Amino acid sequence: MSLLFGSGKEKPEILTTSVSFSGIEFEVLKNGASNNHYIWLHGDERTANMALMHHLNHYDGTAFLIKSDEREVAYQDTKIDPNRIFSRPGSFRALKKFKPEWAPGMLKKALDELDQNREQFLSILFPDSGGILIAVHNNFRGYNLKSELKNCTKVSINPKENPRDFIICTDPDDFDKLSVGHYNVLLQDQPPKEDDGSLSWAAFRNGIRYVNIETRLGWLSQQKKMLKFIEERLN
Ligand SMILES: [Zn+2]
């Protein structure tokens, strides 16, 4: 019962600040001195938020939490998926998705602005000294690990695990450490044919150890366990 009632440890001191990427606001919670960073990017993926908050109460690290209840966030007079703006080609598609027509020159201006602010944001988001960036996501519909196989160089699939619960990593050594467990693990350590603007490829391009934990929405205990597994295997 120690998990429910605490193990006698004091509640951690969590420092709160915030950071913004072109007006997209993130709350930053820092617990202790670990250089592991966490990010929750989609406001409608509540399970991932709860799993991450739980995790940060038990382990050191810095969490970046988007200030949004919805998947897309406001940008100028349109909205964008915050996980599609981590490259210029991805941003181009994201900006046109809900606003196909832009006044002359305005789309280029927005792309230039995102390029500039992205660098700034990533310099804060990316951990230093070999720390890991861990993203937490949930899926609701048909999305599962099969959608990712075309971009993988190695996979470790457990048929007893649900294909909608899986881990993606970008570092081959991390893959070796994670694939000894019973979870589905995918290695993506080659650039994709088409960069969709997701954070994973930006982390990969910059040589950052990146891990994405994807679970079904609502499967909180599963996502908590996967976070704990990664924490224990990769530290
Ligand atoms: Zn997501």
How is the topology of this model organized?
Layout: H1 2-5, E1 14-21, E2 24-31, E3 37-40, H2 46-56, E4 61-66, E5 73-75, E6 78-80, H3 88-97, H4 106-125, E7 132-139, E8 154-156, E9 166-169, H5 172-178, E10 185-187, H6 199-205, E11 209-216, H7 220-234
Parallel strand pairs: 3-4, 3-7, 7-11, 9-10
Antiparallel strand pairs: 1-2, 2-4, 5-6, 8-10, 9-11
Helix pairs in contact: 2-7, 3-4
Bound molecules: zinc ion.
* CATH fold name: Aminopeptidase
Structural class: alpha/beta
> How many DSSP E strands?
11
- Using the alpha-carbon principal axes, give the shape: globular
Number of helices: 7
Q: How much helix, percentage-wise, in residues?
A: 25-40%
Output mean pLDDT: 94
**At CATH's second level, what is the architecture?**
3-Layer(aba) Sandwich
Strand order of the largest sheet: 1-2-4-3-7-11-9-10-8
Separation of the first and last Cα atoms: 25 Å
Strand content: 15-25%
Radius of gyration: 18 Å
Question: Which small molecules are bound?
Answer: zinc ion
CATH class: Alpha Beta
- How many distinct folded domains? 1
- Indicate the low-confidence ranges by residue numbers: none
- Element-by-element helix/strand order: HEEEHEEEHHEEEHEHEH
Largest beta-sheet characterization: 9 strands, mixed
Task: Please provide a written account of the structure.
Helices cover 31% and strands 25% of the residues. The protein is an alpha/beta fold. The protein has one domain: Aminopeptidase, CATH 3.40.630. The strands form two sheets. The chain has a nine-stranded mixed beta sheet, with helices on both faces. A two-stranded antiparallel sheet has the order 5-6. β1 and β2 form a beta hairpin. The relative contact order is 0.16. It binds zinc ion. The site of zinc ion has 4 residues, from loops.
